[in-house]
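U., I forgot to send this yesterday:
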Amino acid sequence: MRIFIALATAKGWPLHQLDINNAFLHGFIDEEVYMFPPEGYTKALPGQVCKLGRSLYGLKQASSQWNLELSKFLFTQGFTQSKSDYSLFIKVSQGLCTFILVYVDDLLITGDGIQSISHIKAQLHEAFTIKDLGLARYFLGIEIARSAAGTFLNQGKYIMDILTDARLTAAKLAKFPMAKGLKLSSEA
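Result:
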């Protein structure tokens, strides 16, 4: 993800974020799966079960079925999957590049053509119903702040959430061996 953000920053490309609504409900089951009728369902007779035609949250196959469904869709849109990182999808069309990074139902999209980004967003919305979060600001616990000077990544909120969950907010600080505010550069 950091390399993806660094690429967008270095090229000056916009970095958009999407969330797929009810992602796991889009996966189809390729095997027979049965479940007991849910509480409150009165049409089932005693001893009857329900055969699932689609995936459900909590089903062990749900995440892989969703991943297959999203991958198939992106392939139909002309994307190829990276051989080094299966969460990265790439499309080169008419000299324009579009990149999609997938983490379950959260997507980062960047590229050198705003029209191709808008087009894939529309196609994704038509196929799955998305929540377009606009330019990326917070992804997987990392705050993303972009400016003309570059991109700043901060995990302060994520760290505080972990400390709060572990009840360690009153813990004493320890020194960290890296200089605070160190700026890394590709220039020698």
